[in-house]
Structure formats: structure tokens, C-alpha cells
Structure prediction request, 227 residues.
Amino acid sequence: METSETKLNSETKRKVVQIFPHFMARVAKFEELATAGNRFLVDFRQGLEFIRRPSIDKTSEIFEKVIKANNTDRIQSYIKAGYVHTSSRAENLNKLNMSHIQLLNITSQAKNIISELECLVEEGKLAIEAASETSHDYHTDLDLEAATCSEEGNVSFVPEKPRDLDYATMVALVYCMVKQDYVMQEKIVSSLSLKTSSGELESYCLMWSLHPFVNDEVMHQAWSLIS
Prediction:
């Protein structure tokens, strides 16, 4: 016979298990936004690099011969535009602007999702705490406190075999990783400007695509709890 020392009561178990798929659905939406954000960040980088790419070396002998042989109004207009087609510059300026707007929109949506995830974590925590009040021997605080990860993204708890309490524990753990990923993305977007260096942009794109705070093994285990 199952006792309170080994299982949550049926009502609490049902509530915690019901929370989990809703929680993971929001995590999936966050991942979709992150994927879209990565594309817009790459677009922003490409647009900015095009706009500030170096001019043609005007001291080149070949360059001088080309200009003398084709000294037309169109060539003069091209030179005045900084050796790029006006339409290309306008296109990349628009690309740059739209990419930044989209990134701001994505981080705003992601922030809302983080708030929703936090509420679900709290719901699970309250359910566990309510159940623990009926059993002095059922120590729920140990697993819930263990479901944390450091700022470096190191996972300190991974359940080996799913139990009732593991759903609540996994929710807390996944929330921790996803929130850190969001904080990183928000900092990247807020730092973007026309003065952002090429090296910074390269690092931002790399970090965004790597999701350094998200442990793939833990995410796989989380999704396996639904299947």
C-alpha cells in the first residue's frame, strides 16, 4: 500500500502532473521565440556589417583606370554614395531597423512567458507544500531546493527515475535554465546599436545559438516525462 512517505496524495499528484504539460508548452513557445530571435540577430549583424564595410581602395591603379574609362554620372553617383548602390544601402538600413524591432518584440514576448513559467513553478511549489503539511515525514523541501542551477548554468539535480515529486522538481529546474537564457538574450538585445563592434556581434550570435545555460540532457528528460 502506498503511504504519504513515498507518494504525494492523489489530489496533489494530479495537480502537479497537470501543471507540467502546460509548463512545457510555454517552454516550447520560448524556444520558438529564441530560434526566431537568432535569425533576426544574424540579420542585424549582416545589415550593420554591410553599412560600415570599408570603401574601395581609391589609390589602386586598377580603380583609377576603371573610373577614367567609365566617368559617367552613374559612376559619380555611385562614388558619392560610398561605393554602394543607394538601393542596397536603404535595403540594409531597413533590414537593420526591422531586425532590431523584431528582437525587441521577441524579448518582450519572452519576458511574458518567463512570468507565466514563474507562476506555474509557484503553483507546483504550493501544491507540494500543502501536501507536506499532512505528512511530517515527507520532506519536500530537499528536492525543490535541489532543483537549482548556478549562474554558470551548472545543473545540481537531475532525477534518475521520474516520481510524482520529480514533476515539480523538474519544473523548477527547467525554469531556472530558461530564465537565465532569457536574461542573456535580453542583455544582448539591449546592448545592440550602430556602435556595436563586429567582435561583439559575432560573440552575441554564437552565445544566442548555443543556449549556454540550457542543459540538453535535462530538457530531454523533461520532455520524456510527457511522452
About this structure: Residues 10-40+106-224 form one domain. The first helix runs from residue 10 to 51. The chain has a mean pLDDT of 78.
